[in-house]
Batch of 2 targets.
Target 1
Amino acid sequence: MILSENNVFLLKNDNISYMFRVTEHGNLEHLHFGLPIQLGDVDALSVKYGTGWGSNSGPEGEEFPMYYPLEWSCLGTGDYRESPTEFAGEDPAGFKFSYAKTYEAIVPIKCSLPQARGKAETLEIVLAYVGGLTLHLFYTLFDTAITRRAVLVNNTDQPVTVTKLMSYMLDIQGDYEMTTFNGSWIAEMRSYRAKVGLSGIVNESTTGFSSALHNPGFILNEPGATEECGEVLGFNLIYSGNHYARVQKTNEGLTRITQGISPVDFEWVLKPTERFETPEGVLVYSNKGFGGMSENMHRFINEHIVPVTWQGKDRPILYNDWEGCMFNFNEAKLLSLAKKAKKLGCELFVLDDGWFGERDSDKAGLGDYDVNKKKLPNGLSGLQKKLENIGLSFGLWFEPEAVNPDSKLYRAHPEWALHANSGVTVLGRNELLLDLSKAEVRDYIVDNVSKCIDEGHVSYVKWDMNRHSTALGATAHKCVMGLYDVLNRIFTDRPEVLLESCSSGGNRFDLGMLCFSPQIWSSDDTDAVERFHIQYNLSYLYPLSTMGAHVSAAPHSQTLRDTPLTTRGNISFFGLLGYEFDLDELTPVETDEIMNQIEFYKEHRHTFQFGNFRRLKATEGISMQVSDGRETIVGLFHELVYAAPGYEKIYPVGLIQDKRYNVERSKQLQNASKFGGLLKVVLPVKVHPDGLVVRTAGKRYRMQDSVQTCSASGAALMSGLSLNARFMGTGYDPQMRMQGDFISNIYLLTEES
Ligand code: GLA
C-alpha cells in the first residue's frame, strides 16, 4: 500500500517499506528503506541536525544546509555529494516538490525501454525546476522490491541539453561494504568487496552494453553480514547499455547511492514538450543476510521481469552444436547428433553459428540471412521437419546487431554500420555493429529474423552479440533503445518462442535483456569448475532459471582441465542444463551417465530452476541448495583434494525442525584409471594403469562411489549432516567417498510422508 499524511509518503507491504517526506522548503528527505514501518515513525527515523557542521552551505532561507538524507539533489545547491542531474550551460538551481499522485498499477514507460511488470502500486512525485522543467520520480512497490525511475519533461520554450540524469538517488545511514561483479570474456562475474569510504566506489560500463566488465547489479551489506543474518541491500538497473553507479559515504555517516545511464559523453537535447525517460532501477532489502537479499531478487525477477509466458515455466534441456562442430557441419552430421541427443533425453536441438551466407568462419557472412545450401540443402524447414520426426524441437542462433564487412549486407549498405567518432574502423571479432538507431536497419532485422523463425518453425532463439561498441552517450543509448524496439517487434507476437540472450557469453547479463529473454548464456567459459564460480556469483543477483549452463567436453578446450562428467552435470544442474560437445565421440559409459543425469534433472527440474535457492556454509568445498519445501537438493563441490581430510558436514537450511527427511546422496562416478598404481594392489590380476585393458574398461565401466542414505529430523540436518569419510589411501571401506580433484555430490532430502 501507499500511504501519505502531512507530506510524508510511505510505500509498504509485509516485506519492505520505503519512506520519505517533503521538507518545508520543498526538498525530499529520505527517511527509511528496510523493514515494514509506520507513518508515525518519522520522528524516530529522521536525522537530528542539531547546530550543524561548520562550512556547510545551503539555499538562502532554509533552516539547514543540504547535508541530510535526500531523495534527489542538484548541483549548485550546497550539496557537494554526487549529483543525479546535470544540464549543459544551465544556471544551477534545485528541484522543489510540486505534487504527488498514486496509481494502483504500474505506470508504463513511454518509450521502448523495458520495465518490471505485474501487480504493483506506483507513487509519482513531481518536482519543479526553475524555469519550467519538471522531474517525475516514479516509485513502484512490488512484493519484494521497490523500483525507481526519473522522467524529465521540458515544459519550457527552449531546448535543454541533459548531460546526466540518473534513474534514482538515495541517502542511507550507516557503514556499508559494496560488492561489484567484474571481469571480461570467459571471466565474468568475479566478485570484489570493498568498504564504502569517503572517496566512493564507481561501477560503470562504457562498452555500449551492460558488459562482462562491470555487471550493473551490486550489493551493499552491513559489515559482518552473513548468508543468513544482517542487513543486505541489492541494486540493479533494467537496462542493457552503458550504465553508471556511484556509492559514497560522507563524513556525517550518510551513504549516497546513485545509478543510471552512464554520463560519459552523454548529451541529450530535450526539445520543448519532449520527455526523457530513464531506465528503471531495482532496490531490494533484506535483514536476513545475502541469502535473504538473493531470495527477494530472485522472486522479483522470476515474477516481474521475465516474460509472462515463461514465468515459472520449465525450460527445455537442450543440445547445442557449437562446441562440437563450430562452423563445420552439414545436415547429416546435425541429424546424427540430434538422434544421439534425443536418446540421451534432450528436448531441443539448437543449431548455432554458421548456417547462413558465406559463414564458414567468423570472418564473413554476418548480416546475411540466406540459408547456406551447401550445409543445409533442405533449408531450415527441411531440417526442422527431420528434427520433429526425431522428437526434438528446433532452436536457431542469430547475431542480428552485427555485420561482417565481408557480407552482402555490408556491400549493399555500408552506411548502416556504426563507426567510431574518431573515423577509425574499429573491428571486434571481424565485425562492425549495425546502427540500430536507424529505422531501416531495425526493419531489416525484424523482417529477416521473423521470416527465419516462421519458416523454420523455430521454438527457441539464441540472440548473440559478439563485440563491444565504440558508441558512447546519446548514440549508444539510441542503439540500445533500437534493440529493445526490435526485440519487442519480433517476440511480443511470438511469446511461445524461448529467447536466450548471449553476448560472447555473459557480456550482457542484465535485467533489460531478461525482460525479453527469460534466460541468458552465462559464459563462453564452459569449463565446469570455472563456470561454477560464475554461476555462484550470478546467484547473488539472478535466479537459476536465468542461467544457461551446459556440460561441455573434458579435457576442456580453454583450461585443459579434465573434470569428471558427474561434476560437469552436477554444476549444470544448478542452472539450465544443456549439452554442448560432439556426441558422436561419447563412450557407452558416458552415454549411460548422461542419460541418468537427464533423468534425474527432469525429475527435479522445477526445484532446480524455480526452487528457493541458498548458498550454504560447508566444512569443506562450496555448497548450495534449492528447495520446493517438499524436496531439498544440496550440492557440495570440491576443487583440489588434499591429504588427511577431517570430519565433514553439510548444513542445509529452511527445513522444518520436527519433520523427518529421507537423505540420499547421488553417486559420484570415477574412471578406474584415476586409481593409477592402486589398481595393482586391489585387483586380482596385474594390469597396467594406463594399458589397453584399463582404457577399454574405462569406456564401458565406471567405479561407483558409496551412496549415503539415512533418515533424520530437520533439526538434526540443519545442525549439520555428517558426511561419509573420504578416501585417504589408508585402506578401503565401501562406505567412504572416493576423492580426486573436482568431485562433487548431490544430496537429496525428501520430506517423509
Ligand atoms: C559466441 C557465443 C557462443 C557461440 C559463438 C558462435 O561466442 O557466445 O556460444 O554462439 O558466438 O559464433
Note: The CA atoms of residues 25 and 61 lie 9 Å apart.
Target 2
Amino acid sequence: MIIIKTKKEIEILREGGRRLATVLYKVKEKITPGISTKELDIYAEKLIKDLSDEPAFLNYRPEGAAKPYPASLCVSVNDEVVHGIPSSNRVLKEGDIVSLDLGLRHLGLFTDMAITVPVGAVSEGSERLMQTTEKALQIGIDAAQGGNTVGDIGYAIESFVRSRKENNYGIVEVLSGHGVGRAIHEDPYIPNFGKRGSGNKLVPGMIIAIEPMLNLGTKNVVQDEDGYTIRTADGKKSAHFEHTVLITAGEPEILTQI
Ligand code: MG
C-alpha cells in the first residue's frame, strides 16, 4: 500500500532528511586511507545518537534475512554494491571507492540516503563511474514530478545511462528504490529501469528513495555468505547514490539535503 504523508509527517521527514545529510557528509569527511569501515560506522552511530535520533538500519531485519543487520552504516567498498557490513579488519586504501548508505529515524519517521566517495586519488574510470551514478540519480529525481509514474523515473535513469554508450555500465536490476517514511522500506518499488508511463502514478505527498546502482561491468550481482553484502558478479567496481524525495504537484523536493 502506498502511503501519502500528512503535512505534519512531511515536516518531520524534512528535518530528519536534513539531519541525515548532515551526518552522512560528516562521515564522508572521515574517509581517508587507513581508516577502517568499522570506525566509520561507530562515528555515524555516535552522530545520530548525539542528535537524539536512531540509526534505522541497526538490527533491521529485511524479509527473508536470517539475522538482523548488525551495524548503523552500510559500507560497501569497490566491487561491493550495497549492504557491506563494517569491520575493523576492513581498512580503506588509496584508490578505493566506498559507498556509504545510512538511514535515520527522527521522531518515529525514516529517511534514507547514500553516496559513493573516493579514497584519496582514484582512477579516471572510478571517477567517471561515480559522477555518472550521481548524475543518474539527479535525472531520476527530475523525472519524479507529480502526475508522472514510477516507470518514468526508471526510464529516465536507464535512458541516460544507455546514452553514455562508451561506458557500457551495468544497471543493477535486482535492487531498487522504494517508498520510505513510516517504515524504512514501503511500497512502491522504484526500479532504475522501466517504461515511460508504466507503474504507479506519483502523487503529491508520496515520499520515495531513488537509488541508482551502476557497475563498471556486468549488471549481475551475488550475495556473500554473510547474508548481506551484495557484490558485482565480475568483481568490477560499483557506485550508489540515493536521496529521499518528496513528490509535489511540480518539482520534487529532495529531503536529504542540508
Ligand atoms: Mg534505500
Note: The chain has a mean pLDDT of 98.
